[in-house]
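Re: the request from the purification team.
They wanted to know what the chain is likely to look like in 3D before they choose a buffer screen. I agreed to run a prediction and write the result into the notebook, where they can find it.
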Amino acid sequence: MGDHNNFEMQGKKHLKDMSETNNSVKQQQCPTRRILIVLVVVVVVVIAILAGVSVACILLLPSHPDDTPPEKCNQLPPRFGNECQHPCHCLNLTEFCNKETGHCTSGCLHGWIGDNCQTSIYISVTVEPKYQVTVPGSTKILCHANVSNYEWKEIHLDYTNDTATQRILSILPTASSPIFGNKANATIFSKNDMINISFGVRIPEDMAYCNTKIVLTCNIEFLDKTLGRKNDTGTVLVKGPPTNLSLDLEAQYITGVDATLNCTATMDPNNTMLFLVGKETTAREPTMAPTINVQTFVEQSNDCGPKVRVVYPADFTFLRSNSFLACIASDKYYGKNFTSEYKTPSITIIN
C-alpha cells in the first residue's frame, strides 16, 4: 500500500515537471516567432524600397542611353546639346560645332565670344535727336557708337534730301576734330568701347525756301569687314521762311464806305502770325492795327505751304494817323519778324 502511494506521488510529480517544461518551451518559442515576424516585415520593406529605386532609375534614364545627340543635331543649321537646344555660332556657318560643348574649330562668328561662342557682343550706333525742327544755319546731332573693343576704320556723316545722298564728312581714328570745308565739323569723345561724336552741320540760308526734310546718317565702318557697317539716322526738318508776303490795298478809302485791307503770305499758320502795322513817318516805330472783326482765311496752294490771308476792316482812325502801312509775319522758329513793303493808302474824307 505504501509502495502504491509512493508510485502515485512520483507520477504526479512527473506530470507536474512535464507541464512546467512545456510551459518553459512555449515561453521560449514566443520571442522566436516575434523575431521571425519582424524579419519578414523588414525584408518586405527593403524589397519595396529597392523596387521604387529601380522604377526611379528607369524614369531618370536619358532619352539617349548611348549619350549620342538626336539626329536633328546633324542637320543644318548646326546645333548642340542633349536636345540640340543651342545653335552653333561658328565663323564657318556650315561647321557642326562640338555636340556637347559647342566649341567651334573655325572660331566664333563675329558678335559672339566664349569657349562655346554663346556670349553675344553688342555693337550699336545711336543718333540723337531722332527728329528736330530747325531753320537755316547750324544744327547739331550726336552719334553714340558702342564698338565693343572692335577697331573701327572710319565714321561717316551722310546727308540725304529728296533728290540725292551726299557724304559730307569722314572721320579717321587718328583725327581729333576734322573740319571739311564749311559744310560740317565734328568733335570726338572716346571712352573705352564707347565713341561719342558731336556733328555740327551748316544748313545754307538759300536752301530752305520751302520746308525741307533731310536725313543725317552716322555710319561706322570696321577694319574687320565681316562685321559689316552699323548706322543710325536722324531726321531734320528745315523750316522755310514766310514767303510772298504782301499788303493789298483798295484804290480808294472813303469815309463811311466799308472797305478792307489784306495781308497775305505763304506760311505755316500754326507757327507764324500775320498782322497789319502802320507808322506815321518812316522814322517811327510801327504800331499794330486794331484786330476787331479781323478774319483769317487759309487756302491750300501748290507753293511751299498754305496761302494765308488776314482781312482787316478799314479803321479810319488808324488810317488817318498812320501814313505808311505794311504786313508783318512773326515766325516762332526763326524768332524774328518778316516785313512786307510799306505802302501809303489813298484816303478820301467826306464830312
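For the purification team: Confidence is low (pLDDT under 50) at residues 21-30, 53-67.
Please add any questions underneath this entry.
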